[in-house]
Amino acid sequence: MQNIIKDIDILPSGEAQACDFKTTKDESTGKAKKLYIESYGCQMNFSDSEIVASIMKKNGFDTTSSYEQADVIFLNTCSIREKAEQTVRKRLQQFNHIKAQHPGITIGVLGCMAERLKEKLLEEEKLVDVVVGPDAYRDLPSLVSAAEDGTKGVNTFLSREETYADISPVRLNSNGVSAFISIMRGCDNMCSFCVVPFTRGRERSRDPYSIRDEAKELFESGYREVTLLGQNVDSYKWSPEENNKARLNKKESVTEKIVNFANLLEMVAQVNPALRVRFSTSHPKDITDEVLYTMKKYDNICKYIHLPVQSGNSRILSLMNRTYDRDWYLERVQKIREILGDECGISSDMIAGFCTETEEEHQDTLSLMDLVEFDFSYMFYYSERPGTLAAKKFEDDIPLSVKKRRLQEIIARQNQWSLFRNRKDVGKVQEILIEGTSKRSKDEWKGRNSANKVVIVPSGNFKPGDYVWVKITDCSSATLFGELIA
Ligand code: SAH
Ligand code: SF4
Ligand code: F3S
Question: Are residues 311 and 406 in the same domain?
């Protein structure tokens, strides 16, 4: 799935995904100990940190936003590109001196880097006490308690069943308006460049009734937007036979039905018309017309699809093992336009300089961008990851300077299209959901339209979580500006 940026209005930029967030929630429910978590990588990882906080809370920890006060420090890490791992290693070095001052604290590395490097992390990073992979978080309390007694520990077991469906996440970095709900874990697509199948394991879908209940609870506590998260949401599939019967809500009469992603979207959309529903990430090979028609049927399903193309050239797509080609992708986009119209936002991920990519093939990516007119994209140059199919089969033969130049061309082209697409909105009247004050000024508020674009409006008599109608009066390539309609 896409790595989601804390503030999408800073997009697009080359390495925008290398973002992080830390615990912002200072809880004091009288628990004996304090936990500080810092998260890197994609939104699924951030969402996992909220599950981790919940598990730790049940075991005597309140969260803190200050690592100086923490008894336990967790870094929930990402392995997607080399740079992501370097960032974490630097951070661990910074934590060295804290540990020197407070020898009693426990430092844990969680997430994808933990999964990829396993025991090696304990050898390489001497100050790390526990290493725990994405499917082993239920084991954290016992590993931490062993570490407190001086025994370092590793659990990187990958599960075929774990979905943490029964764990109610502690919302850590929330604006109180929008929240993320994990609907599945792992990935069964073997894109040749990608480390995720190795760090997250096999794909499995979470019980749909637990997802709907989580959405309901969020709505009842004031949230107005949920984003359903998975690496490939279109392959969501849940049936009582295939999935863990023990977690099934026995009161449901329709539990015998197979639930696909379109069905799940509908279930969540029906929670309340005032609850916006988003999802990420869609895979071009799997997105169905049924999903598009379900989006059309419900006003509260946002008209926005993140549909990463990676490359506009069919030979490169085949080497990437994406299992679709340029024409297939363009047909899917045409279908989105046919069913949902021009106003539906479409964004992408792009990789510049994949193994053996020629200048002409790079031009195909630029020309595909011209055909689709993406609203925005997350753009990267190829970073070889140990253990992936591409690392085993192909030479990483494009010089870094060429990768970077191609990436700059892709970014420049995207900026043009983002501005073009935003200009199309100027003059239109749109409903936005207010998220909070704008970063620029306390006199301005920030909201989002259905197509996921940030809209800045002058402050008025409203609060976060309110829906307001605005007329779009101006734009930049990253942001829309609007005025309130009475
Ligand atoms: N499941 C999502 C992708 C998750 S990773 C999907 O299939 O679209 C987010 C993005 O990181 C990918 O879409 C890809 O553009 C980028 N990425 C993944 N591995 C990479 C690598 N080795 N080098 C550069 N970018 C990479
Ligand atoms: Fe990685 Fe491909 Fe799975 Fe996305 S779909 S997580 S890019 S293997
Ligand atoms: Fe996400 Fe990074 Fe892991 S993108 S799935 S945290 S490798």
Answer: yes
Q: Please count the structural domains in the chain.
A: 3
- Residues with Cβ within 8 Å of residue 183, at least 6 apart in sequence: 205, 206, 211, 228, 229, 230, 233, 236, 264
Does one domain contain both 449 and 377? no
Distance of CA 110 to the CA centre of its chain: 17
377 and 471, same domain (yes or no): no
pLDDT in tens, 122-166: 998 888 999 999 999 999 999 999 999 999 999 999 999 999 999
Task: List 236's β-bridge partners, or say none.
Answer: none
204-236 pLDDT tens trace? 999 999 999 999 999 999 999 999 999 999 999
Token pair 């890490």 in the structure block, residue: 77
Pocket-forming residues, ligand 2, beta carbon under 6 Å? 187, 189, 191, 194, 196-197, 231-232, 283
Q: Do 372 and 435 have their domain in common?
A: no
Nearest bound ligand to CA 42?
3
Indicate whether 133 and 72 sit together in one domain.
yes
- CB of 78 within 6 A of ligand 1: the answer is no
Q: Is the pTM of this model over 0.90?
A: yes
Q: Say whether both 263 and 403 belong to one domain.
A: yes
